[in-house]
Design goal:
mainly alpha, Phosphatidylinositol 3-kinase, Chain A, 61% helix, globular, GTPase activator activity, Rho-GAP domain-containing protein, Rho_GTPase_activation_prot
Length: 188
Amino acid sequence: MERQSELFPDRKLPWVQVQLSQYVLGLGGAQTEGIFRVPGDIDEVNALKLQVDQWRIPENLSDPNVPASLMKLWYRELEEPLIPMDFYKQCVSNCDDPVAAITVVQSLPELNRLVLCYFINFLQVFAQPSNVAVTKMDVNNLAMVMAPNCLRCQSDDPRIIFENTRKEMAFLRMLIVHLDTSFIEGVV
């Protein structure tokens, strides 16, 4: 965001997040079976990563799985997860309570809250029944493939990791279904 402020001082959201989201949708990702589950061609993903790292907009994209794969990688490789570690316990503790889950989101630092709400708003597009009918990616599948990109369990204990994986997915599913992200429309 520091580097971005020099190039795009008026942007509130990460340029790469908005660009990749728009590519996925623009290339018909909301009507692509297995979107986010089917990986994009690794060479194309790496080529796109190089372009995006240089703040360049590629023109030759045709497969929505390529920007979708890079988007997942970008979220996963953030130095601090999208939902900061300090909030992890609250997320897994409130994974079955929509009001409590939304309260956790509202208590996030401003940038994290905006980026997360944009991300959830994006996933809500894919959760619409008309898209699910084609993509086969319902809210459970979306939560399964995306939760590891937002939340990071700090434990090394396989039992805790296994148990928390279910809670991480439940938390993300709760947000996709219940979080009102309408305010994020038009925020970039």
